[in-house]
Amino acid sequence: MGVLGVFPLLQLVWMSLNDVTQATINADAWQPTGLTNYLEGFASGESGPALVRTLVVVAVVTVLGMLLGFAAAVALRTTGRWSGFLLALMVFVWALPPVVNGSVWKFLLGDEGLVNSVLMALGRDAPVPFLYDTTWALISVAFVGAFAVVPFNALVYRAALMTIDPEVFEAAALDGANRWGEIRHIMVPFVRPTTLVLLVLTIVYGFRSFDFIYVMTYGGPGTATNTLPFLGYLQAFSRYDYGLGAATSVLAVLAVLVLAAVYARSIRREEAEG
């Protein structure tokens, strides 16, 4: 962990405080610039909008990923042939490499893809510009990110729901509780600790938004889907301004580190209460 995790992170922070380009990256010493790279990112008008787009992606991934994951877990809480089949399918979707998953969705959301073909068959006059409209493109990559995290959340939620004593539901049924009452008064309170952990992990997943953007839109149209991780990649490996790219990446890392601290704290609290 120290060699493969901590050292590269320290190197990233040090690089963000220096002037590092393709011409100087192998130099014996880099020229210190302090916070210039961070200030330049915001002064150029790139880091601010990228941060906003990152927060939009995180919000969509978190809300859809949590709600749909819980809904799927409730629907698949019982055991049976169809439940097992759907669980296996969800695991397959979750285990797909992001490059494959993103490529599939790129074809599905194209002008002649399945989604637009269905919409046109239902009476829409023109295809929806899912991947080349500034608003639709950001929503599309965020939705695909949420779709990719739903199976994991559903599996974790289902594992938590399966530990509820069946006698609790029997007692609730005798008291006249309907399906919604079981969900509201039994399932939701019972999975609250699981929800806290999954919430942090899902937000971290949203902040790591890169793979689907790289495959589906490559940050476009224009800069419409440039999130912080992808902007840092472009600055470092397309423009070869490694110091600026490192500074942008550090901004995303700081958010993830804060969430990691929250996650560790919640785990310690659950262990103490357990």
Structure description:
This protein is mainly alpha-helical and 274 residues long. The chain has helices at residues 2-16, 36-43, 47-75, 81-95, 98-108, 114-121, 134-161, 166-174, 179-190, 192-207, 211-216, 228-237, 242-273, and strands at residues 18-19, 31-32. It has a two-stranded antiparallel sheet with strand order 1-2. The longest helix is centred in the last third of the chain and has 32 residues, at 242-273. It starts with a helix and ends with a helix. The mean pLDDT is 90.
Task: Characterize this entry briefly.
The chain is an all-alpha fold. Helix content is 73%, strand content 1%.
Question: What attributes does this structure have?
Answer:
274 residues, mainly alpha, two-stranded antiparallel ribbon, 13 helices, 2 strands, 73% helix, globular
Compile the SSE list and pairings.
Blueprint: H1 2-16, E1 18-19, E2 31-32, H2 36-43, H3 47-75, H4 81-95, H5 98-108, H6 114-121, H7 134-161, H8 166-174, H9 179-190, H10 192-207, H11 211-216, H12 228-237, H13 242-273
Antiparallel strand pairs: 1-2
Helix pairs in contact: 1-13, 2-13, 3-7, 3-10, 4-7, 7-10, 10-13, 12-13
Ends distance: 28 Å
Q: If you average the pLDDT, what whole number results?
A: 90
Number of strand elements: 2
Shape call: globular
Number of helices: 13
Structural category? mainly alpha
Strand content bin: under 5%
Helix percent reads over 70%
